[in-house]
Design goal:
Blueprint (H helix, E strand, L loop, with lengths): L1 E7 L3 H14 L5 E4 L4 H7 L5 H9 L2 E6 L16 H10 L3 E7 L12 H4 L3 E7 L11 E4 L9 E4 L6 H16 L4 E6 L5 H14 L6 E6 H10 L6 E4 L1 H14 L7 E5 L5 E5 L16 H13 L4 H16 L2 E2 L9 E2 L2 H11 L2
Parallel strand pairs: 1-2, 1-3, 3-12, 5-10, 8-9, 8-10, 13-14
Antiparallel strand pairs: 4-5, 4-11, 6-7, 11-12
The protein binds nicotinamide-adenine-dinucleotide.
The site of nicotinamide-adenine-dinucleotide (NAD) has 22 residues, from loops.
Length: 356
């Protein structure tokens, strides 16, 4: 088994270091190889996703990714910006299924923006289609408007589109995931207004018939946004398109209190995956040794479970994280009165110790 380790920029290097220490401590037969990505790769090689990094990622069974980006690259041409590395990896590895669990740990209930009774015990999984929809649909562009409300005015346009196979495969991913959880799927669409999402709804309904043991319901995206903040525990697995998933998964993230706690996985059809925390490179705290490494450590656990077939090791890491939270250790982003404030490395040390 081979893991490509791509720490990236900002706090990426600090948090990935802790996840790598945890992985090494498991004493499992995998090889890890590190490469530059994002702004660090641009500085060294003039491109955010150099050929050698892409080759390593393609050959690996899984990619452990930190984060990329810094304000100093914001003036570069778009194809050279650090964030393009993620898009390039998604595209080249065919990572069409994004898993974003939103789990509210008992010890962190107070950090949520919602009342404790609404989020205590929250455990939902948002599955977002990652390679289609309006973000990739063609045609797109800017032009002089040929018709509409203001003919002759400057306009911009994007195209929302999904093909049947794209919907089928993400629906199957969602139903399979639900089978391993509480056997409920909520498919989120906007079928009342959009043709694309009428097809989405029809296809998800058809695929649902192959999974009679999984309960399926459909929800319009506006209602889903409302329900996520009103009664989030009603959900089990939520499956949706690229744009709706982008927005809903960030809203769900905030239910849990801190973005520093949330892992994510992006998988292709052969279960090769890219695993990364849900947050960015946090330039505001980079280099200070205060970033929360738990989202990255939990991403490593997801990697063991989904791509490396090491569920027992994943359980060990997740239990260790629960243990350090129970011990009252907190990085500043999740710190509250009565708990012990620790830095990035100390948090890594504590997880290592709790692995037993
Ligand atoms: P961000 O997620 O980096 O930071 C948002 C806020 O959350 C900041 O205050 C930051 O300090 C805090 N934060 C984030 N992760 C944390 C952690 N592990 N521990 C403690 N606090 C944490 O988002 P942003 O500030 O909008 O973006 C910063 C850069 O990251 C930009 O260049 C952006 O493009 C990039 N970005 C990259 C990714 C990615 O690599 N996947 C995702 C989002 C943003």
């Amino acid at each position: 088994m081979k893991i490509a380790v791509l720490p990236g920029d900002g706090i990426g290097t600090e948090i990935v270091e802790q996840a790598v220490r945890v992985l090494k401590a498991l004493d499992l037969p995998f090889e890890m190889e590190t490469a530059l990505v994002g702004g660090a790769a641009y500085d060294a090689h003039g491109h955010p996703l150099p050929e050698a990094t892409l080759k390593l990622a393609k050959e690996a069974d899984a990619v452990l990714f930190g984060a990329v980006g810094d304000w100093k690259y914001d003036t570069l041409d778009r194809p050279l910006r650090p964030e393009q590395a993620i898009l390039g990896l998604r595209k080249n590895l065919g990572l069409f299924a994004n898993f974003r669990p939103a789990i509210c740990y008992e010890q962190l209930v107070g950090a949520s923006s919602l009342k404790p009774e609404l989020v205590a015990g929250l455990d939902i999984l948002i599955i977002r289609e990652l390679t289609g929809d309006i973000y990739f649909g063609q045609p797109r562009g800017r032009r002089v408007s040929p018709d509409g409300h203001f003919p002759g005015a400057e306009e911009a346009f994007d195209t929302m589109r999904y093909t049947r196979p794209e919907i089928e495969r993400i629906a199957r991913v969602a139903f399979e995931a639900a089978r391993k959880r509480n056997k409920r799927v909520t498919s989120v669409d906007k079928a009342n207004v959009l043709e694309t999402f009428q097809l989405w709804k029809d296809v998800v309904t058809e695929i649902g018939k192959e999974y009679p043991d999984v309960e399926l319901d459909h929800m319009y995206v506006d209602n889903a946004a409302m329900q996520l903040v009103k009664a989030p525990k009603k959900f089990d697995v939520v499956v949706t398109g690229n744009m709706f998933g982008d927005i809903l998964s960030d809203a769900a993230a905030m239910l849990t209190g801190s973005i520093g706690m949330l892992p994510s996985a992006s998988l292709n059809s052969s279960n090769q995956g890219l695993y990364e925390p849900s947050h960015g490179s946090a330039p505001d705290i980079a280099g200070k040794g205060v970033a929360n490494p738990l989202a990255t450590i939990l991403s490593a656990a997801m990697m063991l479970r989904f791509s490396l077939n090491q569920a027992a090791a994943a359980d060990r890491i997740e239990a260790a994280v629960q243990k350090v939270l129970a011990q009252g250790l907190r990085t500043p982003d999740i710190h509250s009165e009565g708990t012990t404030k620790v830095g990035t490395r100390e948090m890594g040390d504590a997880v290592l110790k709790a692995l037993g």
